[in-house]
Specification:
Protein name: DUF2939 domain-containing protein
Shape: elongated
Helix content: 40-55%
Organism: Alcanivorax borkumensis (strain ATCC 700651 / DSM 11573 / NCIMB 13689 / SK2)
Number of strands: 4
Strand content: 15-25%
Order of helices and strands: HHHHHHEEEE
InterPro entries: DUF2939
Distance between the termini: 60 Å
Largest sheet: 4 strands, antiparallel
Length: about 180
Amino acid sequence: MSKGKVALGIALGLFAIYVVAAPFITVYQMKSAAENYDGEALSEHIEFPSVRQSLKDQMNVMFAKQMTEDEEMKDNPFAVLGAAFAGVMVDKMVDAYVTPAGITQLMAGEKPQPGAGQGDDSTGSAERNPWEDASMSYESFDKFVVKAKGADGGDGKFVLRRQGIGWKLTEIIIPLE
């Protein structure tokens, strides 16, 4: 076998290892950034518009479900008005919480503070370690999911998607029930 074929085989093997390990490396970097309250480093791994939209969609579905299941709301003429205001409130609330500092606090096991600025370095200790019982797995070639226990015992999911040869957090799925 020629040296060129051996080198090519080694290079392809290393690339395959990187492709498989890349989301695990990204999650480790995100975890380290959250533990160090480094919102700037963490934000490099997050696609904020996508995360915001996924949370808005989940919250709006939850409010709509509550409105249709609540017997008092079904016959209330102001229910439609309330639903409209709820949608606007959800949008504003998600925009206020889903910031580099807010995601950092969430991933460090704390409750995010609304409107926390990027330069806002919290020094308080984490209430819990959400990474303690976390599980990580591929759901498809370009989708990687980290499942973590929430404070209420429900499973939250951090969904990362392949972007080029790297990975970014694109969704946070919260247990709403």
